Fold this protein.
Amino acid sequence: MENGRRHASVALARALPVPEGRRSAQVLAHGSMEVRWYAPRGVDAQTPHDRDELYVVMSGEGWFVNGDSRERFEAGDILFVPANVEHRFEEFSDDFGTWVIFYGPIGGETAGG
């Protein structure tokens, strides 16, 4: 999973190809940490992931469904999703782009652990 990078920019991330069968491009990786660039267009068709994740919204705005909640988001926001929780971006602007940071063990970390 290591890709050797220790620095990334939004410009670099936007230029990376998204591999076939994936919805995002890997930007950085080390150990259990993986940083990807995610910028869906039109519809966010992602499914739950098997690790905890953070989204750091870099551009755009819209709505984020996270389990049973739905809330507004905009550039500069950070969103946490525990492993295996349904989530998706809805009604997002055409300029939407976010860092996705996966980390920890499969199944996610436990609270306080």
The domain at 10-103 is CATH 2.60.120.10 (Jelly Rolls). The two ends are 25 Å apart (CA to CA). Residues 53 and 81 are 5 Å apart (CA to CA).
